[in-house]
Design a protein that fits this description.
mainly alpha; 3 helices
Length: 77
């Protein structure tokens, strides 16, 4: 049965079936699909971060209020 299935797969590959070709290459030839995501800041520079651990509770509350207000302005917000 394995030989029969393998022959059917090879027939599809010979006929140019793209999905069969990809399947074969991924399972037998070690091909892999990968996605790479890179994040950068303005003009390709580093991402700017803010250490909020040293901010007062009042400053944090103010920042959250600003963020909530901006969120409401977005579509679906």
């Amino acid at each position: 049965m394995i030989a029969e299935v393998g022959e059917k797969l090879l027939d599809k590959i010979r006929k140019g079936d793209t999905a069969s070709i990809f399947f074969f290459l991924k399972t037998q030839a070690g091909w892999r699909e990968t996605n790479k995501l890179e994040v950068s800041g303005a003009d390709g520079g580093p991402v700017q971060t803010l250490d909020v651990s040293k901010l007062s509770d009042a400053a944090l509350a103010e920042m959250l209020a600003v963020a909530d207000a901006q969120k409401e302005e977005l579509p679906g917000g």
